[in-house]
Amino acid sequence: MSAEVWGGIIWSLVPTVVLGLIFWFVMRMIVRADRDERRAYSRIEAEERARFAQEHSARP
């Protein structure tokens, strides 16, 4: 196979690979942000539940 054929193959695959990598990075950032947001929400909710339980158990 000549260099022109290999060059054509490489130049035809590069845009697909680059777009695939961009898509992968964006999806990875979205999934990580969602995971971090859920973790923070769970932590805040646990703190609120603990505070609520403490306030209502202290009352006579």
TrEMBL record:
Species whose genome carries this gene: Pseudolysinimonas kribbensis
The protein, known as: Lysyl-tRNA synthetase
Keyword terms of this UniProt record: Membrane, Transmembrane, Transmembrane helix
Domain of life: Bacteria
Membrane-spanning ranges: 6-31
